[in-house]
Structure formats: structure tokens, C-alpha cells
């Protein structure tokens, strides 16, 4: 069989990780949209999450819509040490890095936009830097959720960036983000059924906006 005859390897997630920070003060902030995503999946797929000290996070496992086993994780290590919790789960279950799908916020994407990729750099995101360091590779899928830039983005200094990322969504944005989270679940269900590469077509081509209400 030649290289050309080989079918591409399907990348099917076995562990879905949402990045965020613990503590009530960070709840529903833009930076915690990864947590919100895993909470939404937990409800939708009826997979309860519970604190697991061995995995340094809130963890749950169950049967995904594709009929296979899926694991959900919210690291409770704080964002810049997220990789510790991810590595704890992958080491325990001997999961390959490419079976880990990480969900996190991205300021470079507008609200309503999502981007699914098979691999890539951290792009300045501390949680992803930690994940890449602990998995010792960039080759694992990730789903970025747009949180937009601060309004006066031209002269944004570091403090404005921090307050934007750690700020909460407005009422209208919250309504929009609830639709985004439904869409994220669709993307991930397709990833589980047909592989991440196939799901990229759906996930990367659509923008959720006010017309979806």
C-alpha cells in the first residue's frame, strides 16, 4: 500500500478539557468559557462532574452521543497550571495526546465565532502553554471560542486586556454565548461521530449572531 492509499487517521476525542479558573469570582467570566462549555456538555450528555483530587480538577466520565466512552475535565489548578490536571488524567488512563481536545477562550476571534483545529501553538494563552508543556506536544485538537477584544482595542494596554478577559459578558452577550455553547456541543458531537477534521468544516464556517435568536 502506498502513502496515497492510506486513509487519514480519524482523530476522535476521548478527553474533553475546558480551561478556566476556580473560585466564584471567576465564574461566568470570558476567560472561563472553557469551564462553561464543559458544564454545558455535562448537562447535555448527562455526565455529572465531581471534584477528583487525583486529577486536580472536576472530572466525569460517561457515554457520549456517539456511543463511546468520553471523559470531561475542568482543571482546578488555575489557568497557568492547567497542564498538570490534563497530564494526571492522560497518564492514569494512558491516553494519547491527540485524543485530548481542549476548549478555551480567544480574544482574537469575535463573539459568536469558534475555531476547531487539530494542532497549533498556544498563541499566548497561558492555559494552552501549560497544556502543551505537560503533554510535550502541540499535536492535540483544540476548540477556541471567540470572546472579542476590548472596545477601545487600538490602545489596549495590559490592564485593559486583563479586565476584559476576566470581566463578565453583558446580558446581550450572555444570550449570544448560550447559543454558542449549544453550537459547541454540536461541533463536539460531530467530532466524536466523524472525527475532528470533519467537524472543522461545520465549526469553522459558521458565525453565531443575533439572527440566530
Account of the protein in words:
This protein has six helices and seven strands. The chain has 213 residues and is an alpha/beta fold. The chain has a single domain (9-212), classed as Peptidyl-tRNA hydrolase (Rossmann fold, 3-Layer(aba) Sandwich). Strands 2-3-4-1-5-7-6 form a seven-stranded mixed β-sheet. α1 (33-44) packs across α5 (171-194), α2 packs parallel to α3 and α5 packs antiparallel against α6 (196-205). The mean pLDDT is 91.
CATH architecture descriptor text: 3-Layer(aba) Sandwich
CATH homologous superfamily designation: Peptidyl-tRNA hydrolase
Portion of residues within helices:
25-40%
Total domain count: 1
- Secondary-structure class: alpha/beta
CATH topology call: Rossmann fold
N/C terminus separation = 50 Å
What is the string of SSEs from the N terminus onward?
Answer: EHEEEHEEHEHHH
DSSP, total strands: 7
What's the mean pLDDT score? 91
Shape: globular
CATH class: Alpha Beta
Strand content: 15-25%
Quick description:
This protein is of the alpha/beta class.
Topology, pairings included?
Layout: E1 15-18, H1 33-44, E2 50-52, E3 57-63, E4 69-75, H2 82-93, E5 100-106, E6 114-117, H3 126-135, E7 142-146, H4 158-165, H5 171-194, H6 196-205
Parallel strand pairs: 1-4, 1-5, 5-7
Antiparallel strand pairs: 2-3, 3-4, 6-7
Helix pairs in contact: 1-5, 2-3, 5-6
Amino acid at each position: 500500500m502506498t502513502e496515497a492509499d492510506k486513509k487519514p487517521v480519524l482523530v476522535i476525542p476521548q478527553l474533553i478539557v475546558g480551561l478556566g479558573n476556580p473560585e466564584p469570582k471567576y465564574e461566568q467570566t470570558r476567560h472561563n468559557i472553557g469551564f462553561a462549555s464543559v458544564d454545558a456538555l455535562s448537562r447535555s450528555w448527562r455526565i455529572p462532574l465531581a471534584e477528583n483530587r487525583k486529577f486536580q480538577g472536576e472530572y466525569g466520565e460517561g457515554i457520549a452521543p456517539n456511543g463511546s466512552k468520553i471523559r470531561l475535565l475542568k482543571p482546578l489548578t488555575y489557568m497557568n497550571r492547567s497542564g498538570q490536571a490534563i497530564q494526571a488524567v492522560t497518564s492514569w488512563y494512558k491516553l494519547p495526546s491527540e485524543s485530548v481536545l481542549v476548549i478555551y477562550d480567544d480574544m482574537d476571534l469575535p463573539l459568536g465565532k469558534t475555531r476547531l483545529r487539530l494542532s497549533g501553538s498556544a498563541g499566548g494563552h497561558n492555559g494552552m502553554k501549560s497544556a502543551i508543556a505537560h503533554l510535550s506536544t502541540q499535536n492535540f485538537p483544540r476548540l477556541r471560542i471567540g470572546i472579542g477584544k476590548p472596545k477601545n482595542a487600538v490602545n489596549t494596554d495590559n490592564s485593559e486586556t486583563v479586565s476584559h478577559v476576566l470581566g463578565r459578558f453583558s446580558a446581550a452577550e450572555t444570550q449570544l454565548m448560550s447559543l454558542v455553547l449549544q453550537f459547541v456541543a454540536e461541533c463536539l458531537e460531530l467530532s466524536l461521530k466523524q472525527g475532528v477534521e470533519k467537524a472543522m468544516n461545520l465549526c469553522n464556517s459558521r458565525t453565531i449572531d443575533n439572527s440566530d435568536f
